[in-house]
Write a structure and sequence with these properties.
- 2 copies of one chain form a homodimer.
- By secondary structure, chain A is mostly helical.
- Helices cover 72% and strands 0% of the residues of chain A.
- Chain A is built from 10 helices and no strands.
- Chains A and B meet through helix 7, helix 8, helix 9 and helix 10 of A and helix 7, helix 8, helix 9 and helix 10 of B.
- Chain A binds a DNA duplex through helix 3.
Chain lengths: 188, 188
DNA sequence: TATGAGTGTTAGTGGTAACTTACATATTAG
DNA sequence: CTAATATGTAAGTTACCACTAACACTCATA
């Protein structure tokens, strides 16, 4: 019965399907709320969009990367992070794709700009990990590699669905990717 | 003075900026042509869009990947392909980003769907290369890695501009990525 | 010269969408 | 019970846009 929750749920559902192109009418209908209520609360569609999305991002994509970064074994650390993020991203694939699409179009604030968010969070994690190990590494290159892996599973055609792998298979996959990333690091 | 060329150039310019959301009015203005001319020639905006984009894709992204695939040394082959495609993609970054955005929204035909096009073309190249070498490799995994690299340079924030690297630096970068991909292959 | 194809101009149609206004109703707090 | 606050309904405003119709103009070719 909480209107706010109703609105958020309806808005997310509609926005995932249509992005910012969705009309406030559709959102109102899906949320079971009068259109004018949306405007009274959020003033503009854009504000509704960013408000809702900021909220969702924190809930669904909040990461404990700095915890994971404490793992001393780099291969293990990479495997964990890949496994963790890949799962979240693929589980929310439609949402992620919508955010990427809007981001590429350039009408997203920094707070909900997924490439921005992912990349900077990865960099922080990597910095933390290698700082602890007192190891000098090209953080940008490394973060880019990881980001590329994630993007590839969200954007490229995907026949052998990641969703349908057993958790062991996922772990193996993550490990394989981790080794690939690792191979560009060890030379120090 | 060729109207067709005028229209194509104007349309591309506008579509790159705004995607399919661009209005036919804008296109007409940019092309220096009456709006109705667009409709007389292409019937619908969608048809104009796909016609123009199909044309551009062939011109700018046409690849000789099967030639490159003849290189026997896998590391060299990978380096060449990465260098080659990365250059094309980054040079046409705005176009690529627009196409990715539209593709993620799901309103693109197969012919101009960039992830589709890139992925299948990569797979063909890899298949050809490893077939020649009589080597069995997980093509999908490998193509995904390559695709991820490309996507990362187009989508992730990019401070140390790829554009501004010397050709030697680019080659080194491509080589580094190639080695990373290679490291997941050699185990056979 | 006449014909036809391609183009421009102008106006218009029908639809949609963001956002507003005015008023009525419901809900809640003091 | 009352007053403030949140909500719904319905109608409207303004702007944009895909697409069409009507008519006049240019120009090449037969």
């Amino acid at each position: 019965m909480d209107k706010t929750e109703q609105i958020f749920k309806g808005a997310i559902a509609v926005f995932i399907k249509k992005g910012m192109q969705a009309s406030t009418q559709e959102v109102a209908k899906e949320a079971g709320v009068a259109e004018v209520t949306l405007y009274r609360r959020y003033s503009t569609k854009e504000n509704l969009f960013t408000t809702v999305l900021k909220n969702v991002l924190e809930k669904k994509f909040g990461s404990h990367i700095l915890e994971i970064a404490k793992e001393k074994d780099t291969e293990l650390f990479l495997t964990n992070i890949i496994e963790d993020r890949l799962e979240v991203l693929v589980k929310n694939k439609d949402l992620v794709r919508m955010l990427l699409s809007e981001s590429l179009r350039g009408n997203l604030t920094d707070k909900i700009n997924l490439p921005e968010v992912i990349f900077s969070s990865l960099k922080k994690g990597l910095e933390s990990h290698f700082h602890l190990k007192n190891q000098q590494v090209d953080i940008d290159f490394c973060a880019r590699q990881l980001g590329g892996i994630f993007l590839s599973y969200v954007i490229l055609p995907n026949d052998q669905q990641f969703d349908k792998l057993t958790s062991q298979e996922r772990r193996d996959l993550a490990k394989k990717h981790a080794k690939s990333v690792l191979s560009t690091i060890e030379e120090i």
